Amino acid sequence: MTVYFRKERQEWWISVTMKYPDGTSGGRKRFKSPRNTRRAAEAFERDYRDEQLQAWRRKKLGVVDVDVPTISEFKVDFERWAEASLSRSAQISYASALKLYIVPRLGAVRLDSVTTGSIAQFTIDVRKGVRRPLKPASVNNVLGVLSKLLNVAADYQLIPAVPKIHWMRVEEEDHEYWEFDEVDRVLEQVDTEPRIANIVRLALATGMRMGEVCGLQWGDVDFTKGVIHVRRQRTKEGVVKVPKWNSKRRIPMSDAAREALTLQKPATFMRRGTQDWIFVDDQGLFQFDRIRDGYVRIVRKSGVKWLSFHGTRHTFASHAVMRGVPIEVLQQWLGHRDINMTMGRYAHLSPHYTDTWIERMNGAPSTALVTNVSPT
User: Fold this and answer.
1) Model-level pTM?
2) Which residues, 6+ apart, have CB-to-CB distance to 2 below 8 Å?
3) N or C: which end of the chain has fewer CB within 10 A?
4) CA-based angle 293:284:290, to the nearest 5?
């Protein structure tokens, strides 16, 4: 293997000279490893060699070179597949990745010419070739669309196999949230946007996603028991479906959540059909764009750091663990399918999931732990 580390750039690279069974040479090629570790570079080189050898064998076997379309040409068929197979929101995400990243960089490349090496270069170009570098998770989202496109092309028998994709490593990262005083400043400004004031209040008090807040009906709220039932969400296209990860759940109603819903009752002055939606205005059910526009104005007036609307969810979760809510309880409130997701994002903020637990290992057992022990 020819894997080397470029000290001046602090990067792992591969240098490959292909020698084929008939004695011919493919020339020397150099590529930067898509993931910056020695092991990843070695795996990348193996995949590249295997790919080139398979291409040589296909050529020697006389495989007919059919008229394989370029990625730009195949885009129309891929979008037809997406329309028949994906939700509207997924179609929009796929179309965005194609328009902004895939077609500008790979549009002229034939489907059968897309290799592990060209995908690695594409990964680097997407990561750095924008005004503000994309995070690894965002790059992986783009790679996911490219992977699906190539898999559909393979299903259509336009390519013999899908080249291997080396995904970027996504490190655990702290999610931004508002401090307690920043939340106070936001809440001081919500009534300047009365149409969405209680939407923002409820999001900060429950950690519900925007679609889940907009999907609430009065039948989901039990003021007597103090519980909110999350049973559905509305998408930005207006489709009503189950919450993300099918996470139907119950959220205890805090004083702040109760206040938001109580304030909203007289504001709900329009109904649609027989469904008793909570958040409606004089134009009917809220459109996400109207919520976001009002939300942006609230944040700007409050003078706090910018967070997207989803940042209200991170703020709720962060404050919950800082107040001592156990991670496993928070997982249920947020509807995370895996507790590791909750741990990775919020456990470091908890005063109980760090060094304080070791105090329970010191000294004698507590009385509560020994009262039921019978003497021998």
Assistant:
1) 0.60
2) 14, 15, 16, 17, 45
3) C
4) 5
Closest CA to 205 of 239, 136, 251: 251
For residue 87, give Cα distances in angstroms to 84, 100, 159: 9, 20, 26
Residues 315, 317, 320, 322, CA torsion sign: negative
Do residues 38 and 3 touch, judged by C-beta distance below 8 A? yes
- Quickly list DSSP for 11-29: EEEEEEEEE-TTS-EEEEE
Q: What is the pLDDT of residue 104?
A: 92
Tokens of 238: 């207006």
Please give the Cα distance from 212 to 341 (Å, whole number): 19
How many whole angstroms separate alpha carbon 214 and alpha carbon 196? 11
Instruction: Check if the beta carbon of residue 197 is closer than 8 Å to that of residue 191.
Output: yes
How many Cβ atoms are within 10 Å of 96's Cβ, its own excluded?
13
DSSP H or E run through 358: none
Are residues 317 and 323 in contact, defined by beta-carbon separation less than 8 angstroms?
Answer: no
Instruction: Please give the C-alpha separations between residue 353 and each of 171, 275, 328, 365, in angstroms, as whole numbers.
Output: 20, 43, 11, 20
Phi-psi region of 344 (alpha: psi -120 to 50; beta: other; left: phi over 0): alpha
Q: Give the number of other Cβ atoms within 10 Å of residue 362's Cβ.
A: 6
Spatial distance between the Cα atoms of 298 and 293, rounded to a whole number of angstroms: 9
Is-contact 297 193, C-beta < 8 A? Answer: yes
d(C-alpha 352, C-alpha 342), whole Å: 15
Q: How many CB atoms lie within 10 A of CB 359?
A: 8
At residue 271, the pLDDT reads: 52
Alpha helix stretches (DSSP H) within the chain: 38-60, 71-85, 88-97, 103-106, 116-128, 136-155, 180-189, 197-206, 210-214, 255-264, 288-302, 311-322, 327-334, 339-346, 367-370
- Segments of the chain with pLDDT less than 70: 1, 57-58, 60-66, 129-132, 170-174, 267-275, 282-283, 351-376
Closest CA to 203 of 313, 290, 329, 300: 313
Rounded Cα distance between 355 and 263, Å, is 41
